[in-house]
C-alpha cells in the first residue's frame, strides 16, 4: 500500500457488527476478512458498524501504538536506551538509538504518520457514506447515527491532535479519499486552523455522544472505556484548550469530567476520600498486599478512573507486542527503553523527583536496579509490609489515553496559568493545589501531608509542582514530551524545557544546541510523504540540499 493519506479503491471491512460482539477483546482484535467494492457497500447498519470497528481496531495496531509511545516519550527526560537484542517488530534498532540521542532524520519511521491518516480516512469514510444508510435500512436509526458520528468526529480529532502536537503543520483532510486515480495534493494547514476545526467537531460530538456504552459480557472488558463517550469528548476538548492556552474553557471541560465521575461514584456507592473520586490506595494489611489503585488502573484495566483506553486481549498478540517490545514485560524485562537513571536512581529511598513514600516509583520502574531500570508501569507491583517488591503479569495492560488524574492535573495547570483571585485571595492557586495535592497524597499515604503555604501558594511554585506531579503520575503514558513542549510554547523559548528534557544525557550540551530552535520541537515530515504530496513543505530545520520542499 502506498504511503500517504490513505488512498485506496477498496475499503477493508470487518464483517461483524457491534451487536454481534461478545467482548471488547473481540471488538478490537478482529481483522479484516474481506475487501468489498465500495459501490456494493453502505447498505445497512451492520456494514456501518463494521467500518466503525475498523477505526478502533486500527488504533490497536502496533504501528499506531508505537507512535503514541515514541512521540510522547522518546525525546523526554523519562526514558533512555535499554538493552537491545535481536530484531524487534516495528523498530529499526539503529534508528531508535539515534533518536534516543536526539538525532531524527526525515526517513526514520518515527516521522511516518500514515497510520494516523489511515484512521482519519476511515472516520471520514463513515462520516461521508453512513448518512445514506439511513434511507436504505429502516433499522438504522437517526439516534444511532448521531452517536456514531460523535465517535468518528472524536477519533478523527484525537488523531489530528497528536499530529499537530508532533508535526505542527499537517494536511487537514475532512473527506474520504477512496480512489488511487485521484491526484492527491494537499498543503499543510495552519495549526490554529486545524485546532479550531477540532474544537468545532468536538463541540458537535458533545451534543450526541453517549454517556456510556453497555458493559461487555466479561467484567474485564467494558465498551464504556474502549469507545468514545461524553467523558472522552470532554477530556480531549480540555487537552486541546490547554494546548491553545484557552484556560477558561479547559477548566470548564475538566470540571465536567470530574463532576461526571463524582456522579458515577455516588451512583455506584463507591467510597472515596477527599473531594475527588480517586480509587483508594489501601494501606498494607498483609504480607503481600497489592497497591489497589494502580493495580485496578493498569492490571485489572478499565478502572473507574479510566476515561478512554485501548484494550488488548489476555493472550499474547502482535498488537500488544509494541508495548512489550518498547517497555518490556516480565518475560522481557529489559526492553528498548528503560527509565532514565536520574529519575530511578535512589527512588526507593527518595530522590529529587520521588519521596520514599511515593509508591508510583515502584509502580513505574524497577527500583532495585543499579544502572538499568526496567519500566514496570504496565506490570503490576505487589508490596509487602516489610517493603519487599514482587511483580506479576498484568494481563497485558491497556494503553490509556485519558484517566481522571490526568484531567485533574490539566485543570490544575490551567488554573495556575489563569491565576485569578477574589478580593486578593488566590482562588485559582488554592484550587490548583487542591487538585494536584489530592493526586500526590493518594500515592503518598505514608508521607507527610502537603499544605497550601510557602512555595505551594505561589504561581511559580505551583507551576513546578504541577509539572512534576504530571511527570510522576503519568510517567511512560505518552504525555511528558507534550507537557514540555506546552511549557516551551507558553514561555516563548525552548531553554527552560530543554534544561528538563536533556537531564537524562551525560553531556546534554550537544542535544540542547540542536533543539534550541522552536522548529526542532516538531518532527520532520517523512521524505516519502514529500514525494507523494508536492504541496507539502519540510520542517525548515530538517531541510537539506536533497529535500523536496515546494510544489513544482
Using brief descriptors, characterize the structure shown.
single chain; 552 residues; mainly alpha; Serine Threonine Protein Phosphatase 5, Tetratricopeptide repeat; 3-stranded antiparallel beta sheet; two-stranded antiparallel sheet; 46% helix; disordered N terminus
Overall description:
- With 552 residues, this protein is mostly helical.
- It has 2 domains: 10-209, Serine Threonine Protein Phosphatase 5, Tetratricopeptide repeat, CATH 1.25.40; 246-478, no CATH class.
- The chain is 46% helix and 7% strand.
- It contains 22 helices and 11 strands.
- The chain has helices spanning 24-29, 45-59, 62-74, 93-100, 114-129, 133-136, 142-167, 191-208, 223-226, 230-243, 247-267, 292-300, 318-327, 341-344, 360-364, 404-418, 427-443, 459-474, 480-491, 495-501, 509-515, 527-532, and strands at residues 10-13, 34-37, 79-81, 170-171, 188-189, 289-290, 306-310, 337-339, 380-383, 389-392, 399-403.
- The chain has a 3-stranded antiparallel beta sheet. Strands 1-2 form a two-stranded antiparallel sheet.
- A hairpin with a 5-residue loop joins strand 9 (380-383) and strand 10.
- It is globular, with a radius of gyration of 23 Å.
- The protein starts with 9 loop residues before the first strand and ends in a 20-residue tail after the last helix.
- Residues 1-37, 86-91, 217-221 and 284-290 have low confidence and may be disordered.
Amino acid at each position: 500500500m502506498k504511503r500517504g493519506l490513505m488512498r485506496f479503491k477498496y475499503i477493508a471491512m470487518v464483517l461483524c457488527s457491534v451487536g454481534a460482539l461478545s467482548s471488547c477483546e473481540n471488538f478490537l482484535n478482529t481483522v479484516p476478512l474481506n475487501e468489498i467494492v465500495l459501490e456494493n457497500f453502505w447498505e445497512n447498519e451492520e456494514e456501518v458498524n463494521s467500518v466503525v470497528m475498523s477505526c478502533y481496531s486500527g488504533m490497536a495496531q502496533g504501528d499506531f501504538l508505537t507512535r503514541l509511545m515514541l512521540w510522547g516519550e522518546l525525546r523526554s527526560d523519562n526514558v533512555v536506551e535499554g538493552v537491545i537484542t535481536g530484531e524487534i517488530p516495528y523498530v529499526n534498532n539503529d534508528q531508535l538509538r539515534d533518536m534516543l540521542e536526539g538525532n531524527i532524520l526525515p526517513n526514520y519511521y518515527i516521522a511516518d504518520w500514515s497510520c494516523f491518516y489511515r484512521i482519519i480516512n476511515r472516520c471520514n469514510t463513515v462520516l461521508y457514506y453512513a448518512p445514506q444508510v439511513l434511507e436504505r435500512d429502516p433499522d438504522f436509526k437517526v439516534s444511532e447515527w448521531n452517536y456514531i458520528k460523535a465517535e468518528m468526529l472524536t477519533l478523527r480529532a484525537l488523531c489530528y491532535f497528536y499530529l499537530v502536537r508532533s508535526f505542527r503543520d499537517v494536511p487537514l483532510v475532512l473527506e474520504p479519499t477512496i480512489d488511487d486515480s485521484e491526484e492527491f495534493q494537499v498543503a499543510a494547514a495552519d495549526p490554529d486552523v486545524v485546532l479550531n476545526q477540532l474544537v468545532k467537531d468536538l463541540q458537535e460530538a458533545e451534543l450526541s455522544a453517549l454517556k456510556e456504552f453497555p458493559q461487555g459480557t466479561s467484567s474485564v472488558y467494558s465498551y464504556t472505556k474502549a469507545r468514545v463517550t461524553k467523558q472522552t469528548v470532554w477530556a480531549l476538548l480540555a487537552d486541546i484548550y490547554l494546548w491553545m492556552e484557552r484556560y477558561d474553557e479547559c477548566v470548564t471541560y475538566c470540571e465536567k469530567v470530574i463532576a461526571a465521575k463524582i456522579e458515577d461514584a455516588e451512583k455506584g456507592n463507591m467510597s472515596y476520600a477527599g473531594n475527588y473520586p480517586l480509587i483508594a490506595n489501601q494501606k498494607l494489611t498483609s504480607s503481600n498486599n497489592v497497591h489497589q489503585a494502580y493495580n485496578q488502573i493498569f492490571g485489572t484495566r478499565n478502572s473507574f478512573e479510566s476515561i478512554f483506553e485501548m484494550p488488548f486481549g489476555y493472550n499474547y498478540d502482535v498488537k500488544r507486542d509494541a508495548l512489550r517490545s518498547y517497555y518490556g514485560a516480565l518475560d522481557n524485562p529489559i526492553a528498548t527503553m528503560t527509565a532514565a537513571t536520574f529519575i530511578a536512581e535512589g527512588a526507593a529511598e527518595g530522590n529529587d523527583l520521588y519521596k520514599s513514600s511515593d509508591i508510583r516509583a515502584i509502580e513505574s520502574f524497577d527500583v532495585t536496579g543499579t544502572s538499568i531500570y526496567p519500566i514496570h508501569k504496565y506490570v503490576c507491583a505487589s508490596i509487602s509490609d516489610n517493603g519487599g517488591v514482587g511483580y506479576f503479569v498484568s494481563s497485558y495492560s491497556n494503553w490509556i489515553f485519558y484517566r481522571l488524574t490526568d484531567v485533574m492535573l490539566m485543570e490544575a495547570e490551567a488554573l495556575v496559568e489563569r491565576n485569578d483571585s477574589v478580593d486578593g485571595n488566590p482562588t485559582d492557586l488554592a484550587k490548583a493545589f487542591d487538585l494536584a495535592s489530592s493526586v500526590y497524597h493518594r500515592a503518598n499515604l505514608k508521607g507527610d501531608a502537603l499544605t497550601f503555604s510557602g512555595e505551594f501558594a505561589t504561581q511559580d511554585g505551583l507551576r513546578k509542582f504541577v509539572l512534576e506531579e504530571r511527570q510522576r503520575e503519568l510517567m511512560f503514558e505518552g504525555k511528558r514530551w507534550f507537557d514540555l513542549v506546552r511549557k516551551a510554547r507558553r514561555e516563548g523559548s525552548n531553554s527552560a524545557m530543554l534544561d528538563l528534557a536533556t537531564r537524562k544525557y551525560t553531556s546534554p550540551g550537544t542535544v540542547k544546541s540542536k533543539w534550541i530552535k522552536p522548529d526542532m520541537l516538531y518532527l520532520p515530515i517523512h521524505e516519502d510523504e514529500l514525494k507523494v504530496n508536492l504541496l507539502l513543505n519540510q520542517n525548515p530545520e530538517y531541510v537539506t540540499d536533497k529535500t523536496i520542499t515546494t510544489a513544482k
